[in-house]
Amino acid sequence: MSQESLLKDDSTQAARLDRLREFLHHSPTPWHATTNMAERLEAAGYRRLDETDTWSLKPGDRFYVTRNDSAIIAVNLPASPLAALRMVGAHTDSPCLRLKTNAAQTSAGWLQLGVQVYGGVLLAPWFDRDLGLAGRVHVRHPDGRLEGLLIHVEQPVAIIPNLAIHMDRDANEGRAMNAQTQMAPVFLQGGDKEDFDRLLEGWIKEQHGLSDVQVLDFEIGFHDLQPPSIVGVGGELIASARLDNLLSCFIGLEAMLEADGSQGMLLVANDHEEVGSASACGAQGPFLGDVLKRINAQLGQGGEENYIRLIQASRMISCDNAHALHPNFRDKHDAQHGPAINGGPVIKVNSNQRYATNSATAAMFRALCEEVEVPVQTFVTRADMGCGSTIGPITATEIGVPTLDVGVPQWAMHSIRETAGTQDVEYLTRVLTAFFNSPELA
């Protein structure tokens, strides 16, 4: 029986894939993803802490904290004295089209919404898709109170129509796309600029029961309405929007909730990785460092020296998807480094420190994979091509923790719809669970 058929017969793995699809479907933005992760943590007994409160931590505590409602850190403290933390990092944001502040514009009898390109978006796949809207809206109540609300419009309210091939005979030869003039989704026939404000107020009333609030500002983007799917005759693939990097967020959370809780564990999911991580809730910001310092102050020995000792005894696995070998573009990979879908997690290596992996941290991960009988792969980009990066090098730089970069192999990275292997979800979850449970860190 094939590996994929075995997967379909395994109720545990099937249930995990169901949870994954549910998480992806209900997480169209970083704010929604963070909220959904927080709800699962609370259901598992983790308590929410507020950064503005005084914390009182004790051995055995399980808690989480959010920043900007779009980044989250969850911590499991051991019952024994805290000597090290097993950290897993990911990010909640994905490339997309975000609305401009004054988004409404009209052309040829249509109301359109002007967009900003967030991150390194593959623009072509956004054409001819049923698009919904989602994000965060800040409103003022009649009593003057300000509140942030999540909005998720799951109806196909917009589309970016392609130009007919008859009017652009060179379209299949690689037509350049202009995000300013050609990517504004069509929203409402005969509409004007006030209609968007009216519709936004209507969605707030429908989803939150509020009809007397004033919209002050928003961060809203478009998202594809096609739901996540298991694809392939053998169920080998999962296809969805935002696999980069909600897949890592999900796997990290699954591993944390499955771990036995005997060791110090931390899961961080930063925002803004796709635009450089330079923000208060990004990996280049102080979020993780702030939480670690508060933990050390209460459960460590206190002081800078003991903080450094804690960090150097800890390890970070930065999880962000890797480039799988594409059957139609095999020449884009180094011949010795073409990770296969469903071939196991990928250690990502770059001598110029675009990835944080070194031989010591890679050896630790390989040993973990061997321990739980999971295959492991390596990705090194072609020497004549550039290389992306992750939160790994940034976290290692900001915190100083020994780090490596790994990821599930995927196709179509930064597309509106991406593809990864179903078996790889189980593989990486198994390895990260072993990492969280490991009594010794190499």
Explain the overall architecture.
The protein is an alpha/beta fold. It has 2 domains: 3-94 and 241-437, Zn peptidases (Aminopeptidase, 3-Layer(aba) Sandwich), CATH 3.40.630; 96-224, Aminopeptidase i, Domain 2, CATH 2.30.250.10. It is built from 10 helices and 20 strands. It has helices at residues 3-9, 11-25, 30-43, 193-208, 243-258, 287-299, 303-313, 359-371, 391-399, 422-437, and strands spanning 47-48, 62-67, 71-76, 86-91, 96-107, 110-118, 131-140, 146-158, 186-189, 214-224, 229-231, 237-240, 265-270, 315-319, 322-323, 346-348, 377-379, 403-407, 409-411, 418-421. The strands form 3 sheets. It has a 9-stranded mixed sheet, sandwiched between helices. It has a 6-stranded antiparallel sheet with strand order 8-7-10-5-6-9, with helices on both faces. Strand 16, helix 8 and strand 17 form a beta-alpha-beta unit. The longest helix has 16 residues, at 193-208. Mean pLDDT is 94; it is low at 1-8.
SSE topology:
Blueprint: H1 3-9, H2 11-25, H3 30-43, E1 47-48, E2 62-67, E3 71-76, E4 86-91, E5 96-107, E6 110-118, E7 131-140, E8 146-158, E9 186-189, H4 193-208, E10 214-224, E11 229-231, E12 237-240, H5 243-258, E13 265-270, H6 287-299, H7 303-313, E14 315-319, E15 322-323, E16 346-348, H8 359-371, E17 377-379, H9 391-399, E18 403-407, E19 409-411, E20 418-421, H10 422-437
Parallel strand pairs: 1-2, 4-13, 4-14, 14-18, 15-19, 16-17
Antiparallel strand pairs: 2-3, 3-13, 5-6, 5-10, 6-9, 7-8, 7-10, 11-12, 12-20, 16-18, 19-20
